[in-house]
Amino acid sequence: MSWKRASAIAIATGLFIAGVGILALRAADRAFPPPLETAGAVSAEVLDRDGQLLRAFATPEGRWRLKTTVDDVDPLLLRMLVAYEDRRFYEHGGVDIRAIGRAAYQLVTSGHIVSGASTLSMQVARLIEPRQGRSFAAKLLQVARAIQIERRLSKEQILDLYLTHAPYGGNLEGVRAASLAYFGKEPKRLSVAQAALLVALPQLPERRRPDRNLAAAETARKRVLERAAVSHAIGEGEAERAQAVLLPERRLQLPSLAAHLAQTAVRLEPRDRTHATTLRKQVQEGLEATARDAELKLGPKLSLAMVMADAQTGEILGEVGSANYFDASRSGWIDMTRISRSPGSTLKPFIYGLAFEEGLVSQETIIEDRPADFFGYRPRNFDMSYQGDVTVREALQLSLNVPAIKLLDAVNPAKLMVRFRRAEVRPVLPPNETPGLAIGLGGVGVTLKDLVQLYTALANNGKAVRLGNGVDRQPGTIDGEALLEPVAVWNITDILSGVIPPAGAPRRGIAYKTGTSYGYRDAWSVGYDGRHVLGVWVGRPDNGAVPGLTGYGTAAPILFDAFAKSGMATTPLPRPPLGAIRIAQAELPISQRRFAIGSSGLLATSAREQAPQIVYPPEGAHIDLGATSGELGPLMLKLQGGRSPFRWLANGKPLPELSRRRTNQWMPDGAGYSKLTVIDALGRAASVGVFIE
After folding, report:
1. Which is the catalytic residue, given 43, 121, 345, 525?
2. CA dist., res. 663 & res. 692, Å (int)
3. Using one digit for the tens of pLDDT, what is the confidence trace for 46-100?
4. From the candidates 43, 45, 85, 566, which is the catalytic residue?
C-alpha cells in the first residue's frame, strides 16, 4: 500500500472518529443538559409603583435570593468581578486553557496551589448544580457543564446567573441581597469599597463575612482592590482610598414594608416572582415610621391603621394595617383598614354638606346647641356640656352633636345614605334597622378605606373616586352624580381647614375632621389637601373600650405626623368654585340667620306654608362666575319656604321649566346686574338683585 493511500485512510479514519466523537458529545449534551430551568427558586418581590423593592420573601428553603441581572448592578462591580475572577471571561468558551496551564505549572513548581483556573462559567455550573465533594471527577463535570452553559447562554445571561446565585454567607445569595443586607441599598450605584467587598465575599463567604470576621473581610477586599488597580478596572489612587473606608459590621434587615398588602399580593398570585403595587415607597416608609413612633406611646393591646390615597386617581399611596404586624398582643396580623367600625363624628361633614346644598344654612347661620329630644333620641355632646347659640361654622369645627343631628333630621338620614351610595360606599346598619338619626354620630359600620373613599369627594370638588386595593383592584372614576355640589364642598373645606391642629403640630394647609366612637372604642382622624387624603384609625382590634381614647387627642397627632413623614408636598386646597362666597351674618337673608326646628318637627325658618324666600344668592351679592375670563358658569339658586312647583325668572324672563326642588341653576348671559325672582304655586314671590362678575 502506498504511503499516500495509507495517509488518506488514516485521515479518513481520524475524521470518522472525530465525527463520531462530536456526534457522541452532542448526543450526550442533549441527553444531559445543564439544569438551567431548575436552578434554585428566587425570592418573591413586592414592588412599589416605581419598581422599588418594598418587601421580599425568603425562598422555600429559607434563602434570600433576589433575581439580579447585569442591568441591576453598577458597571464598576462587573469590571472588578471580571478583573478578579476571570480576566478572559469574554474571550473563552467556558474553560480558560491558559489559566489551567498557569495553575498546573504553579502547582508543579511550588508544590501547592497558588491560583485557581475556575472561570465564571464554571462557578455558575457549580452554583446551579452544587456537589459536596471537590474531586477530580466533580471538576471535570464543572468543565463540561461550563462548555454546555456557554453554548446555551450569552455572556450577560451567564453573569445574570452568577449575580443571582453567588453565596454571601448565611442565607444570603446574590449581589442584590448582599448589597441590601450590608449597605442598605440596591447595587445600582456602589462605591469602589462596596463593590470590592461584594466581589471578595463569594470565594469564602462564611470566613469573610464582615459581621463575623472583620479582619478576613478587610484582607479579601484589599486583594480585590489591588488586582482591580493592576488591571485598570479602577482609577489610580482609588484602591488606597477605598481601603481606608470602614467595613459594615452588622447585617441589615431586608426591606419588609407593607406587610399586610404584600401578603395579599403573594396570596393572589403565588406563582409570580414580582408583584406590582400602587404604593409609593417614600410614603410607605413615612407611614410605617409614624406607626412605630405611635406604637411606643399607645397603651397595651392598642393598634392603628392608616391609608393614604390620591384623591384624583384613587390609587393607594401608602397603607398600614396595624401598629406592628408581628405583635400578637395587638393582633397585628389583622388588617384594620378593612374592618368595619363605628366612625364616630367623621360623617358629620357630609350632613353639613347636604344642609348647605339645600340652602338650609350658611356658615354664619346661628344654630342652637342645647338639649333636644328627637322622638325619644336625645343626643349629647362628647363632654356632656352645651355651647348655647353657635354659628354653623363653629358647630362643625367643635364637632357638636346636637346641631349635627338637627341638620340631619332636616335633610333626612335616608338621603344621606343615598349620597354615600353615589360614592360606592355602603355603611353597615345594625341588623333590621333603617337609616336613623344615630348614623350622624357613628351608628353605622364603616371601614377606614370606605371613609377615605368618601373624603376623596371633599378633596375633589364633590366627585368621589373608587379606591383601588393597591394590588389587583384598579382604582377609577365613579359614574353618576357627584356626592355633593362643589359650592357645598367648598364650604365644608373652608370650615375644616380652620380647625386648630393638635398640640405641637404645625399648620400644614390641610382640612381635617376627627371622630370618637361610643364607649371610647375607636379614634379617627381624616385629613386632606388638594390632592391627597389620609385616614387614621386607633383602637383595639377586639373592639374593647379604651378610656381616654379620642380622635383629637389620639388620632389627630398621628395624622399630622404621618402627613409630615410621607414626604408628599402639600397640594393647595381647591380654589373656591364659581359662585362660592362667604356671607357675613348681617348680610344673610332673614330666613338663614337662625336655624331652628319647631315643635311640629318642621323647619321653623321654612315651614311649607310660609312665603318663598331666596337664600342664595343674597341681595346685592357680587358673584364671580368667570364672566371676565370668558368661561361663564351657572349660578346656583336656593330658596326656603313656599309651595312647589316653583317658577324662576331672570331679568323678567322665565327659566325653561317649573321646578319642584328648592334648588335650581341659571346660566346668565354675561356680566352685570341681574334680578332674580321666584314664584310659588300660590303666587307668592320673592326677588333679589345680584352682580355677575
Report:
1. 345
2. 19
3. 999 999 999 999 999 999 999 999 999 999 999 999 999 989 899 888 887 775 6
4. 85
